[in-house]
């Protein structure tokens, strides 16, 4: 599954560290998700969508 998180995060002016703090996860988790090496839990995906003012469907692309 691919994602648009990196671009949406940058559009919001957030650093990986900022996003990690706001979501209560490590920066390494954000890096792994952005690099398609880790799929977040549904709860984390929903929090990310809310933080980035978008939908889960816009964040993640099912191949």
UniProtKB/TrEMBL annotation:
Keyword GTP-binding on entry: no
InterPro entries: Cro/C1-type_HTH, Lambda_DNA-bd_dom_sf
CDD domains, per database record: HTH_XRE
Domain HTH cro/C1-type residues, every copy: 5-59
Domain of life: Bacteria
Entry-linked Pfam families: HTH_3
SUPFAM superfamilies per the UniProt record, alphabetical: lambda repressor-like DNA-binding domains
UniProt keywords, alphabetically: DNA-binding
Protein name per UniProt: Helix-turn-helix transcriptional regulator
Organism per entry: Lutispora saccharofermentans
């Amino acid at each position: 599954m691919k994602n648009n998180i990196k671009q949406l995060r940058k559009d919001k002016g957030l650093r990986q560290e900022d996003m990690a703090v706001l979501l209560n996860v490590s920066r390494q988790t954000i890096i792994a998700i952005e690099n398609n090496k880790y799929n977040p839990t549904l709860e984390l995906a929903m929090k990310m969508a809310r933080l980035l003012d978008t939908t889960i469907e816009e964040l993640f692309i099912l191949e």
